[in-house]
Amino acid sequence: MAIDVETARPILSHKIGGLSGPPIKPVAVRCVYEISSKFDIPIIGCGGISTWDDAVEFLLAGASAVQIGSAVGEKWTGVFSDINNGISKYMEKKNYRKLSEMVGIAKKF
Predict the structure, then answer these.
(1) Residues of the chain with pLDDT under 70
(2) Rounded to a whole number, what is the distance in angstroms from the first to the last CA of the chain?
(3) Which sequence spans correspond to the domains of the chain?
């Protein structure tokens, strides 16, 4: 929740909201890791993804896809190409040919 100190009114129209963006990322990565360790299902990682390495972290934890939310508001749509280009460079550097080769690698350790 946030309150405008000048008007003394809640800033959000529904008064309260959820937590999103970078503060939620460590919890979200943990959830992806734990769920992917117990179930063999496709998982969409979401929560705090604003850079290519955020996205890669979710993939390594077990997500087979990622969602970008709050970062769109911060960087507008350029964030999609930035993240895509960063993932591509990372894959090239690490010799991955397909995203699926990266998914869940961190569970091996």
Answers:
(1) 74-75
(2) 39
(3) 21-108
Q: Where are the alpha helices (DSSP H) in 1-109?
A: 25-38, 52-61, 70-75, 78-94
Using CA atoms of 58, 60, 61, 66 in order, give the dihedral in degrees to the nearest 10: 30
Contact 58, 29 (CB under 8 A): yes
Three-state SS for 42? coil
Return all residues near 65 (Cβ < 8 A) that are at least 6 apart: 42, 43, 44, 45
| pTM of the predicted model as reported, rounded to 2 decimal places | 0.84
Query: What's residue 72's pLDDT?
Result: 85
* Nearest residue to 106 via CA among 58, 66, 65, 67: 58
